[in-house]
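Our platform keeps sequence and structure together, in a single record for each protein. Such a record has a labelled line for the sequence and another for the backbone structure tokens. The tokens are whole numbers drawn from a learned vocabulary of local backbone shapes. The remainder of this section carries one protein's record, kept here as part of the documentation:
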Amino acid sequence: ESYQASNLDSSRGQKASVNTQEVQQDALEKPPFVGIVVPHLGSDFLDGIVLGVETMTRSFGYGLSFAYAEDDWALERYHIEQFLRQGVAGIIIYSGEHAVEERDGGFVSVLEEQSGRERIGLLQKLQRSNMPFVLIDRYVPEVDCNYVVSDDFNAGYASTQHLIKLGHRRIGFVTVSYRLTSSGGRYAGYKQCLSDYGISYDEKLVLHTLESAIPPAHITQALVESFYPRDHGRIAEYLKGRERPSAVVAMNDFIALQVMQTAEEIDMMVPDDLAVVCTGGSNIGAFLRVPLTCITQPVDEIGRQSAYILLNIIM
């Protein structure tokens, strides 16, 4: 069962119609390339975003320079600085694991982490140098800039609401130990939905100690092999507990896959013994024996919208 999360949140994004011919003519007088930095490869989620960016930049007469940061902040910074030296017209940035925490109803960056402080400083440097840039999928709370993300709060809310309407009351949430604005938004939606339906929040139903939200290789390989034995063990212990959940909201589709695989290995049937709902943007569900119930993110539209906003800033 699939639900389309079609709404995008864009900060300060311009959506006015433009004359493509004028943009293409104007592009001849500007650096012909924009850059995009992504943290990892190997999933059709990121493939879809990059494709969306490329189709939009190409239609406006710009080329696209691609950089892969390998989930390493030092490489992310290096590529952004290289783009500056190359004189690109603008940069689209899919940041790495920028940790945030909840405070006063919103998010703030975890400044104890050096990478977080340095990322804020670099983005502010881009602003001072008037380099156009757009963040995608997640944002940095301290930097007032353009970004395009899915409606993560409503994704978490709708996932939880679906399970409540199926009659579940012991609904868990499974996520990674680090909190991004995307996962934090889904978690906040989960908690708000429980409150709105009069269900008490139970910390014991939340598993937030997983190490990774993405596979280390192409997603199809993850269907036949467990790459994270420690995460596997944590999920197994969580599902075997005396007060285990009857249903789970997973942060994303890869975590949902890990939950479903582990459940089957300990003789739990999905969805009879454990219902699972997640947020995702890949086609991972097509490879599973039991299809995923998933709030799908419009990944190609995220890419197109981020490029459209960037090109409007450049103009």
Notes: The first helix runs from residue 20 to 27. The radius of gyration is 20 Å. Residues 108 and 141 are 6 Å apart (CA to CA). The first strand starts at residue 2 and ends at 4.
